[in-house]
């Protein structure tokens, strides 16, 4: 009980300070609550509609969720440039000419309220509100907000769709140019290595086998002709004569082929008529071989021609004719052998180069296939992007629509003067009590017997308080009453002076609320 009386006495002693602080804060709060002009709030509601065309039929170009889209619009709407432009265009804030750009932006943002509602199996909504002392300005600002949000939505949808289409158009063009370039590289490579391409490797190997067999046969024929020529020379040197059957026994391959062709023709005529295609083919072959044999005989006879003045020896002439015929055959076979060897060398070189060419060509074709796949994918995506752009241009995709249009409010919604006044009085009382507690914590003087015990470590036998005379008590009470009267007069006077000569209290409160980002 004594402690309670002690604290009450301390509070009574510090009462002037408490009254000063509590009176100033409470008076200012009450004055602000009374002088604050009425605030009107206008609001609008927006809805994110789903695409009107199912995604299975046409994939949308813009794939953001409705909540993410609204967050983007909110961020873009509350930019510094937008706030300054709208405030200056509509002269929204009171005493706006004397406000700095930062204060204008803070004031516009503090008066703007945006709430988004979204959830699973729920529609995505945005509610935008704006507070102003003038109901028409509140509705005008909200209409400007609404216009900008709808413009942002349109620009965002069409911009994304157009940019997507342009990107894939560029990709298709770029990949098409790469395809043309790669096709040119493949064509150039095939032209430069036409003799050693992998797709003709089987043909070259078969040709190589055939040429090798021909080369062996040619070498065998050359060997036989050389043996025949050697025997002919030996017989002629030994006897001076040529064997009668030597010429007929050494017929050329063309003569043998001619005889065989004639035999086949005679056999065919026994079965078919002369107009039969097979008979005509055999007849043409016989004529061709006969011409070849005749030319060979003329050449052989021409090489054995002698001067008419020289006596002719029949055996010598026959010998020379046969030797000339054998030399002609040997020359022909030798030339054929050389051509075969040259062609074989070329084939072996081409076959050796085919493996490397196959690897290089495979790499070129693989790159071409990869580019072709990318080109096909880009073309398919371009078609999808074109469809998506068409959907967005016709506003058939996901879009923002207005559910509730802004209207001019008829009744003020703020401020709650009673709430503001009560809060100000409560804050003043708490501030005064806090000041008293601070002063007491800083005061270390002894005012109770227990303070002596705690401070000096001794226990006094008795303590006598300071006794004031009647005159001192009168002075003290008079001073307290004077302080209370002065405080009671000074607080309203100071508030009036600030409101009249410095700045209206409602503007001061408005600036404070703008800085704090709250509204009364």
From TrEMBL:
Q: Which ranges form a coiled coil? A: 208-235, 323-381
The record lists the membrane-crossing segments as 420-439, 478-498
Molecular function (GO) terms for this protein are: protein tyrosine kinase activity
Superkingdom, taxonomy of origin: Bacteria
Q: Record's GO cellular component, any one?
A: plasma membrane
Annotated keywords: Coiled coil, Membrane, Transmembrane, Transmembrane helix
Q: PANTHER family in the record, alphabetically? A: FERRIC ENTEROBACTIN TRANSPORT PROTEIN FEPE (PTHR32309:SF13), TYROSINE-PROTEIN KINASE (PTHR32309)
The protein in question is named: Polysaccharide chain length determinant protein, PEP-CTERM locus subfamily
Q: Which organism is it from?
A: Pseudooceanicola nitratireducens
